Amino acid sequence: MIFKMLFLLAACLINFPAFAGTIVSEEFDSDSAFCFWNVSAETCAHIQSQVAYSGKGALELHGAGSCQVRRKLMFHKSSDIVRNGFYTRFYCKLVSQDDSIALVQKTLLIFSLTLMYLDEKTQFDPFIYLEPAGEERYTAKIGVRDTLGASPRLAPAGFSTGIIDFSQWHCFEIFVSLDNDTLCDSLFVDDDFIAAQKTKLKGKAETFQFVNIGSDYMREPLPVRSIIFDHFTIATHRTGPDPRVPSILFPRNGASFIPRSPSFMLRGDCFTDSFEVLAVSENKEERFDSVFGVEDKCCFKEPFAGHTAYTVCGRAKNVFGSWSAWTGKSIFIASPDTRLFVPDSNFSISIGYSSSDSQVRAFYENDTVMIRLGMPAEVNIMYLLLNVSSERFSSDWEKRWNVFEPTRNFIGNVSLARGIKLYIPINGKWVPENELETGAPGLIAADLPVRLSGLKYAKNTLSAAFTLKPGLAHGIWYINAQFIVQGGKAYQAQSTFFRFEPPAYKKYVLPVCIFLVFCVFIVGILLLYRRKREEIQSITPAMIETSRNITSYLLEQHMHKLSNEDIGRKFGLTGHRAVAIFKAVTGITPTQKLMLIRIEKAKELLRTSVKSVTDIGYEVGYSDLRLFQRNFNKIAGMNPRDFRSKYKH
After folding, report:
1. How high is the mean pLDDT of the chain?
2. What are the residues facing 185 on neighbouring strands?
3. Looking at the keywords, is Repeat present (predicted)?
4. Separation between Cα atoms, residue 268 and residue 252, nearest integer Å
5. Cis before 126? omega within 30
6. On the CB side of 402, how many CA atoms lie within 13 Å of its CA?
7. How far is it, in rounded angstroms, from Cα 71 to Cα 23?
8. 84-105 core/surface letters (b: 16 or more CB in 10 A; e: else)
């Protein structure tokens, strides 16, 4: 926590800026890079492609005397870039001299900014240099030349010291801001914070004139053969590192009997300044909360529902304003019950399908649940009480609703003093579990809600298993354990839980049925479409002509009684063939067409004549007056008399 507070103090000093954009980006992939960079000597720098951090090339500066490349910036102190600050990030690798040449430990200047003052004098302010730290090793430092007094530095204990090894790529990043002649800068190496300083300048600083790579103040050979630079970037926002995903320390995944207003404990890194926690209940109710500053605890204001499973995950925001990804989900149950024993973290309960799986939380009928009880090696465990129950948890064994009803609430006493023996409480006595097979106590093993099997004790872990029988209550089941050591002292592990679900297939029955009905519906539509398409494609000009002839014949003979055979015989066809041709072309049968013709003729007579409805029915071909009225009402939507009253001229 002290380290984090020191870093946050440094963050406040350097005034981290908001996101804006990239100002300079150079990959040194080709000689065209020298169009923007000035070289102190033609032979000291070149673009090489044998060793590059990224891209096709890198800039190599030879260590023979003065060797520096610079690029013009012209960042005036009045600009937002300078006042808010900017980041310079690059990758660097040192190449050692040949073995035959003795290494001379000297300070290396690898980066600097040329700051021009009001009197037109210039200084390297600030700069990054490397100090010797043993054979072929250096430490990274930052410095400012034009200062009032000593340069104050912040290098918190416990942070990386920025060790630079030969022949290894290292990432350097420096933040610089200038406001009212106060220079703030900080250094990161390989994404680790190294140091920060806030310096009052003696002169009146005006402009960051150049950015420099290498050194021009050393007139003698350097203790390295060359220095290679790559992936150089200047931006108004920090380009790395990404926020680190935090870890949830409390509640433990799978824990039960958590207070209804729990304090979630998370752990970030030295850049973390706040956390956000999301808890989702079984009915998908979401709850957010957050905590800022250097606190690691996040407590929701409203209490959680008791005996309800929640999944919780968290994320962290760093001092640069970026959020991390969410943590993996942890599951827990809040409980309003009070507790007699405080759980001891040295004792644990874990469950799963097998001995290698401890994350499973849902089981179904006939599933086998594996239990593992962990305990410290230095404690002499005499026996332990194991409870498996669908009832709400209570550490007060005597006050549990059905504590001594083995058929509803399993409690087992596992003795470890002399081998492994399991006892079951019956009528106030602990009865060996193997005696239940004989039925002597008036209870048989089949009456127990669960039956432990495969009891094994090895490496301070007791493992057992039980099968969830059909007929047990579905819902949340709790597993609790108390450990009694020699002398009678009791310890309790953090309780855990699992959910006992109905048979898995039941939840899929309705969705599968809906899916099958949908598939049948789609197939029916496709078949109907295919049939219609085939019918349309099979219509010939001769069929169209036959259909027209049948229509004309029906118009001429509508007053007579006509059957399908009569119509087919007229055109040399069978009745079935005549119907098939006519329907394929028109979509209706000849009989339906005949009815439409007769009703249209009847409408015309009702509008223009004074004949009775009966006479009109006989005239258009109906011998049955009731059939005529029924068909007319079906087509016209009203009976013949109403039609005449409404439409007669």
Report:
1. 77
2. 176, 197
3. no
4. 17
5. yes
6. 13
7. 12
8. bbbbbbbbbbbebbeeeeeeee
Rounded to whole angstroms, the Cα distance separating 231 from 54 reads 7
The matching CATH number, chosen from 3.40.1190.20, 2.60.40.10, 2.60.40.1930, 3.40.50.720, for 247-334 is: 2.60.40.10
pLDDT digits (tens, 9 = 90+) for 321-371: 677 888 877 777 776 554 455 677 788 888 875 444 444 467 888 888 888
Burial environment of residue 204 by CB neighbours within 10 A (0 to 12, 13 to 18, 19 or more):
exposed
- How high is the pLDDT of residue 364? 83
Q: Which residues pair with 500 in a beta bridge?
A: 363, 475
Grade residue 443 by pLDDT with cuts at 50, 70 and 90. low
How many other C-beta atoms lie within 10 A of the C-beta of residue 280? 16
> How many Å is the maximal CA-CA distance in the chain?
132
Question: Could you give the CA distance from residue 247 to residue 327 in angstroms, rounded to a whole number?
Answer: 7
- pLDDT per residue as tens digits for the range 81-96: 898 889 999 999 888 7
Nearest to 309 by CA among 290, 291, 285, 288: 285
Rounded to whole angstroms, what are the CA distances from 450 to 210, 409, 428, 471?
78, 9, 20, 11
pLDDT 10s digits, 89-118 = 999 988 877 643 444 567 788 898 988 888
Contact (Cβ atoms closer than 8 angstroms) between residue 247 and residue 265: no
As given in the structure block, the two tokens for residue 224 are 């390295």
Q: Please, are residues 507 and 364 in contact by the beta-carbon 8 Å criterion?
A: no
Predicted pLDDT of residue 351: 82
Q: Please tell me the class of the 2-235 domain.
A: mainly beta
Indicate the fold that domain 539-647 takes in CATH. Answer: Arc Repressor Mutant, subunit A (1.10.10)
H-state helical runs in 207-247: none
Residues 6+ apart with CB under 8 A from 398: none
Instruction: Report pLDDT for 336.
Output: 54
Helix H or strand E encompassing 209: strand 205-215
DSSP 323: B
Alpha-carbon Rg of the chain, whole angstroms? Answer: 45
Pair 199, 212: CB distance under 8 Å? no
| CATH code of the domain occupying 348-500 | 2.60.40.10
Confirm whether 247-334 and 348-500 share one CATH topology. Answer: yes
Where are the chain's structural domains?
2-235, 247-334, 348-500, 507-538, 539-647
Instruction: Give the 3-state secondary structure of residue 27.
Output: coil
Task: Report helix, strand or coil for 621.
Answer: coil
**pLDDT for res 293:** 47
Average pLDDT over residues 417-421: 79
Whether pTM > 0.70 for this model: the answer is no
**Cβ neighbours for 476, distance < 8 A, ≥ 6 positions apart:** 307, 309, 333, 390, 497, 498, 499, 500
**CA nearest 261: which of 298, 292, 309?**
298
| C-alpha pair distances (Å), 347 with each of 149, 237, 538 | 57, 47, 81
Residue 64 tokens read as 């023979």
The burial of 474, by beta-carbon neighbours within 10 Å (0-12 exposed, 13-18 middle, 19 or more buried), is given as: middle
Q: Which of 224, 213, 221 has its CA nearest to residue 45? A: 213
Q: Which of 256, 257, 273, 275 is nearest to 265 (CA)?
A: 275
Whether residue 406 is predicted with pLDDT greater than 80 in this model: the reply is no
- Helix 625-636 vs helix 640-647: angle between axes, to the nearest 10 degrees? 50
